[in-house]
Inverse folding.
């Protein structure tokens, strides 16, 4: 038996959805603090542009495309869940997880090449911010993939379908963070 | 994650097998470990937080005793510790500050009272996410373990002050505590995670799990305060989490985020730290004000003066608290024009806080005041906190701060705010809700002895420190013997007065501990509603069983309908039909 507290909804908004929004809000300020620190440094250091020239813009652009596409399948999963089509929602979520995996694989090749070229975490401030921000983001990608795997497992047997939307919201947030990271770290030269 | 109500018809085949918490009434049959270590019951978790916080409070107090003894009698053998070395002194003051803020004020004021009161006062049986709640405590417990370990690693505990300014905190060759500083940082980060999880739980529970009929303005002020505090915490801690990651990288991987020699900026940490650190003051202040408001209303037998005013001032405080942080950095080399702006915002934030004090005093006016132990603590909170607030004006104004910065005046000022918050208001809350928590009354005589034995020495600790600060005594000095003008006998006398007062105050805490433990087992049995209060926690049995209420209450009115004309009783519980 669940506690009555977990089944009430005084606002009319499902409690799970509220919690994910608050989670996203607290994550926004984490990335906000990091990116604001980066931007303040970027403004004061024109030479960051020269360092940014050594990033692989094409790999970043491809990853942006991959993440955006994976968000599309997260939306399709939500749509399927709304219609009660659990297995279809689960398949769509697996597609999203695949997108996350491709993103991470591309990133690992990118980082390997950059580290081989001598650009490591401690090379200079630009690369410190680059690895810290992208690394923190990659951790969120992994967390989102793990959460989606659990939700997809339940969705296959039509259980807890409301969670498909919640994990999708989180994934969109991860996606949007990348939308900020890509121009700030790769394009701004 | 919980199933929301509007998507689940009862028994509609949605995963009923998944049990979030044992059914009501089964709490007695669980094993010891299940009940006390892995319980999802909000009351058990609240007590875990409370006892952990009290335990950490004892450690923090012992640290204060140790370094105060060193300051009063430099180089002497401190009973129970030994001779304090300079490094040990640094570690003691650093961890005293960290423990009192992060491991006493936060867990007791927010987590313990929040967990205990929110479901009971909202008329529900648990938090919206009981398992997340348990996770929150477990992460917190882990942070305690990491912090305690950090005190005993080679090199000793972290000694770079609780604000952890780089380069002291980022470079091992400066702090001399390579392991201690990293473990300290990890402990603080874990503590933040615990309170983020807990805060999301508090906010969602208050939004969604209220009893039928309870509108937003029927929520008791203390619940509002904890919710606003959780939101302020949630919105302010993020940048510091990012900053902590950067500091960790500086310590471990040779990055230079805070190293000016390699393009970094030590001021960045100060901004990130105080962007969190100053709202944090209000994160702990607001729940303390909430507790005091509940106690003052009940023992004045009067409606809380200006419920909405209190609420709006709390929200205003929360918002303005994000725009005052740089008043900690007036001498750190920030632009003087920016210092002017932050002077203005700092003076502005005293307005809503002063408003709150006026509201509490107006609630007292004309009330039939009962000077019980919790009421004495609540009144002391107002009196002492005003001293803390007024002395803060001297520090908020950049002109006077330049003289007073980093002196004992600052130290005495924030102890006049933090002691009322984390000690005085907590005692008000503990003595007020003790009958509900443990089903027995505390001894009033011992309670009053403890009250006066705490309040009088508290003032005689910190008033001398104000004087020392005005005399120019710098903080963070291990022994003043090397500073002839600060080692003058009349100044040393003040240090000795403060230290002796501290020892007296700590001795009187034994009275409280004795009273607390004895009352838990031997105290007079408490009825359901011993104080004749209106809020819903007093509708439940004392102590409330698992599941809290026999029948879930419905709310008909606000929480402060005391002495309503033309009624026989001077109180009107929220769940009583008209």
């Amino acid at each position: 038996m669940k506690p009555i507290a977990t089944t009430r909804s005084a606002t009319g908004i499902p409690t799970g959805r509220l919690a994910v929004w608050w989670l996203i809000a607290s994550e926004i300020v984490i990335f906000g603090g990091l990116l604001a620190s980066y931007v303040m440094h970027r403004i004061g250091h024109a030479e960051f542009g020269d360092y940014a020239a050594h990033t692989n813009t094409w790999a970043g652009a491809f990853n942006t495309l991959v993440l955006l596409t994976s968000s599309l399948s997260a939306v399709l999963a939500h749509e399927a869940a709304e219609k009660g089509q659990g297995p279809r929602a689960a398949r769509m979520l697996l597609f999203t997880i695949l997108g996350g995996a491709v993103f991470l694989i591309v990133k690992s090749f990118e980082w390997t090449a950059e580290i081989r070229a001598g650009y490591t975490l401690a090379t200079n401030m630009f690369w410190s911010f680059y690895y810290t921000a992208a690394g923190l983001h990659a951790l969120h990608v992994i967390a989102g993939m793990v959460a989606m795997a659990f939700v997809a497992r339940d969705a296959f047997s039509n259980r807890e379908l409301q969670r498909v939307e919640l994990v999708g919201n989180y994934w969109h947030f991860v996606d949007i963070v990348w939308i900020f990271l890509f121009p700030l770290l790769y394009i701004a030269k | 994650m919980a199933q929301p109500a509007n998507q689940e018809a009862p028994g509609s085949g949605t995963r009923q097998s998944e049990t979030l918490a044992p059914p009501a009434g089964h709490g007695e049959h669980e094993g010891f470990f299940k009940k006390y270590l892995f319980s999802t019951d909000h009351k058990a978790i609240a007590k875990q937080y409370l006892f952990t916080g009290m335990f950490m409070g004892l450690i923090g107090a012992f640290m204060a005793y140790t370094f105060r003894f060193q300051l009063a009698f430099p180089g002497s053998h401190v009973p129970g510790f030994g001779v304090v070395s300079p490094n040990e002194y640094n570690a003691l003051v650093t961890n005293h500050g960290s423990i009192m803020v992060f491991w006493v004020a936060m867990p007791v004021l927010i987590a313990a009272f929040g967990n205990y009161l929110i479901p009971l006062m909202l008329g529900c049986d648990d938090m919206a996410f009981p398992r997340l709640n348990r996770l929150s405590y477990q992460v917190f417990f882990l942070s305690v373990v990491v912090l305690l370990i950090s005190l005993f690693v080679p090199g000793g505990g972290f000694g770079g002050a609780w604000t952890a300014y780089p380069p002291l905190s980022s470079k091992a060759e400066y702090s001399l505590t390579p392991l201690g500083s990293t473990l300290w940082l990890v402990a603080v980060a874990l503590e933040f995670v615990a309170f983020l999880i807990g805060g999301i739980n508090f906010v969602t529970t208050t939004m969604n799990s209220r009893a039928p009929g309870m509108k937003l303005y029927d929520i008791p002020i203390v619940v509002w305060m904890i919710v606003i505090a959780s939101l302020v915490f949630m919105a302010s801690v993020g940048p510091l989490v990012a900053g902590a990651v950067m500091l960790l990288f500086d310590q471990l991987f040779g990055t230079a985020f805070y190293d000016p020699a390699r393009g970094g900026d030590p001021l960045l940490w100060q901004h990130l730290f105080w962007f969190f650190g100053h709202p944090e003051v209000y994160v702990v202040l607001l729940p303390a004000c909430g507790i005091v408001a509940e106690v003052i209303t009940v023992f004045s037998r009067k409606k809380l003066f200006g419920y909405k005013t209190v609420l709006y001032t709390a929200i205003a405080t929360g918002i303005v608290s994000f725009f005052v942080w740089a008043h900690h950095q007036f001498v750190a080399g920030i632009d003087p024009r920016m210092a002017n702006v932050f002077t203005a915002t700092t003076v502005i934030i005293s307005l809503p806080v002063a408003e709150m004090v006026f509201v509490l005093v107006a609630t007292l006016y004309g009330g039939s005041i009962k000077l019980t132990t919790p009421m004495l603590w609540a009144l002391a909170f107002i009196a002492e906190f005003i001293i803390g607030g007024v002395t803060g004006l001297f520090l908020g104004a950049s002109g006077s701060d330049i003289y007073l910065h980093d002196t004992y005046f600052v130290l005495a000022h924030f102890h006049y705010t933090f002691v009322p918050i984390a000690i005085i208001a907590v005692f008000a809350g503990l003595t007020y809700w003790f009958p509900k928590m443990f089903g027995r009354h505390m001894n009033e005589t011992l309670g009053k002895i403890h009250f006066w034995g705490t309040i009088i020495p508290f003032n005689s600790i910190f008033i001398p420190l104000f004087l020392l600060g005005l005399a120019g005594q710098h903080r963070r000095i291990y022994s003043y013997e090397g500073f002839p003008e600060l080692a003058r006998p009349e100044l040393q006398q003040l240090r000795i007065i403060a230290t002796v007062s501290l020892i007296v105050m700590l001795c009187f805490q034994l009275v409280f501990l004795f009273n607390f433990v004895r009352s838990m087992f031997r105290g007079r049995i408490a009825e359901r509603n011993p104080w004749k209060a209106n809020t819903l926690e007093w509708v439940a049995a004392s102590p409330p069983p698992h599941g809290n209420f026999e029948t879930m209450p419905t709310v008909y009115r606000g929480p402060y309908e005391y002495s309503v004309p033309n009624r026989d009783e001077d109180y009107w519980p929220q769940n009583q039909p008209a």
